[in-house]
Amino acid sequence: MRVAYWPGCVSRGFTPELHGSMELVAPMLDIELVQLDRASCTGAGVIAEHNQELADTLNARTFALAQQVEGADMMMNICSTCQGAQSECQERLDANAEYREMVNGTLEGEGLRYEAGITNKHFLWLMVEEIGLDVIASKVKRPLTDLRVGPFYGCYIVRPTDRLGISDELPRDTYLAQLIETLGGTVVDYAGSHKCCGFPIITMNKAASLKQAGRHIGDAIDADADCLVTPCPLCHLNLDLQQPLAQREVGRDLGLPILHLPQLVGLAFGLSPKELGMNKHIVKPTSVVDWSTSVVAGVGAEQGGW
Amino acid sequence: MPDYTLKIRRYSPETGESAYWEEFQVELDEHRSVLDGILQAKDRTDGSIGIRCSCRAAICGSCGVRINGRPGLACHMHLGVAQKSSKDGQTIVVEPMGNMPVLKDLIVDMDAVHWKKIRRVTPWLLPDGPPPEREYVVPMESMVDVTQTMACIQCGACVSDCLSMEVDPLFIGPAALAKAYRFVGDPRDGQQFERLKDLAEDPHGIYDCTHCFNCIEACPKGVAPMNQIMRLRRIAGSDHKIEDRNNGLRHEKAFVKNIEKNGVLAEADLLPDSYGGKFHPRAVPELIDSLPVILRALMRGKVTPKALLPHKFPDQKQIRRIYDTVHDRDERFELNLYIVGKDEDEDGDGDSRSSGNDPGTAQGSPGSSPPERSPNT
């Protein structure tokens, strides 16, 4: 399928391995990515906090650009925060024709126009709902046998449930667990799976922010997780990049590898950790590599973590 | 009548024993509430089960509990639905709410946390000058704006699952901050600036919310406390220019400017700018603290030197023009779907199609949504 692809800012900035691994995994799933190079940041909730209309207009512009992509089935995100921020704006834009006209009035100058009702899905939703877990299972070359994976959903992709269309028919708040099982891994049940990583307040209340990250990682370790997987690069920043500081904050050893969603899929599809950019993580994915040393050349395994 | 299994968390501090789980079988129609189930167990099996309740109709806010790990009113959840949403599809798990000490079984100490925080925000009107001879007269639209926060029934469900409060118990929290907006947004109140200054400067105030949406999800009345917190921030920052010591406004400004300048986020600028700029005295210790992390990221190739340089963005002019158009408006628009409802929604509180207002005029935020009162500067 062909999708208008919005990678977001962080996946091309501080977590380049996310965008990189997505580009490798997409063709294996017959997804053609048409990147929205002209789209702007979604505002991550912060622009909406400053001025709702500004955030809505910026995202309406992105939706309009996506609607111009010929032959695209839908729009796709790989960042939960982008998905959540855009869903919030879309909810307002789609709810009220008059408001939509006002926003479209601002976009008119560039010949852009947003038509209500764009289908915009996170890669996780797209995999489960459009491609299907059976198809994904058929592409697994190296099942994640014995790998204990903790799903870390974060906030933006699971709440609020009505806005995100989560229901009995679309239990999107269970998709990570379903996917981990499909890839052959074992799902780890732990307290923090649907909690906040703390990233949004890292500059305002650093101690509280790091405590959140540290606590969830600790809970996952206590539940014998080998790694966490997250659909959000901002969660990845707080859980991986800040893990040494989070460790200091909560006063216990952590050292739990954090994987991006396409990396986990890529591993099961037979790609090497290095191809998937796992060597770029702050917490070396040693435990993940140990599990498949026969296939995977040891990325940083020799140094035993960080 | 169907049978249901309720697994209730029991705890009586005076016994000195730790909390434990106990299962009860109840026999009720699927449309009866979890509260009805608890009361039947109490009536037929164990009279010592502690639960606080009164109206049984989702009005009094007494019976807040966690059902299957989610906060809500026990009287507002059907047994059938609760069973369906339980982990094993059978056992309905009922626990006391979180973030508050347990007094007994399902009863938490609302005084110790919830009410203390509500009192913290001065939850009464502080008008300027002497009171009028008769009642206050205010425009109707301005009161419609605060009706969402007035819908709060003080059940504590949002407090129970606030993820900021979980790591920072001093956080003022969703219920109290929603209550704060009820007065900040009231045209009769004369202390808008003082209230906001206080809440912005408090390290556990409006900028301590981590934006997790748990309170929105928890609220049985649609108060959406997090949205009210964002409105408090918007008014504090944009209208009153309150520069708080928590970097709240600085971070927001840095982010908004960053996108205006770069289109997509230039992360390398965001962190120092959030502390007031690379050479700001506040930024230096922060950057030094983060230095080992940044260096490690550079060494791993996670953060490339390219990522530290400004990105080239093709349509920057368009983005700037959108910023200018929106910022040049006389009034800041806010579309509150709680108040105006959706176009398709016939039963919505407001009918946006009938208003026929020009969305560009001063009174004319789309639909019947009241525009914020403060000028857009």
List the helices and strands and how they pair.
The complex is a heterodimer of chains A (306) and B (377).
Chain A: E1 2-6, H1 16-28, E2 32-35, H2 46-50, H3 52-67, E3 74-77, H4 80-95, H5 97-107, E4 120-122, H6 123-131, H7 133-138, E5 148-151, H8 175-182, E6 186-187, H9 206-222, E7 227-230, H10 233-241, H11 243-250, E8 258-260, H12 261-268, H13 286-290
Helix pairs in contact in A: 1-12, 3-4, 3-5, 4-5, 9-11
Chain B: E1 3-10, E2 20-27, H1 34-44, E3 64-67, E4 70-73, H2 79-84, E5 91-95, E6 102-104, E7 107-108, H3 111-120, H4 140-150, H5 157-160, H6 163-167, H7 174-184, H8 192-201, H9 214-218, H10 225-239, H11 248-262, H12 267-274, H13 283-299, H14 305-308, H15 316-327, H16 337-340, H17 352-355
Parallel strand pairs in B: 1-5
Antiparallel strand pairs in B: 1-2, 3-4, 3-5, 6-7
Brief overview, please?
The complex is a heterodimer of chains A (306) and B (377). Chain A is of the alpha/beta class and 306 residues long.
Structural summary, described in words:
- The complex is a heterodimer of chains A (306) and B (377).
- Chain A has 306 residues and is an alpha/beta fold.
- Helices cover 43% and strands 9% of the residues of chain A.
- In chain B, 40% of the residues lie in helices and 9% in strands.
- In chain B, strands 2-1-5-3-4 form a 5-stranded mixed β-sheet. A two-stranded antiparallel sheet of chain B has the order 6-7.
- Chain B starts with a strand and ends in a 22-residue tail after the last helix.
- The chains are: A alpha/beta (306), B alpha+beta (377).
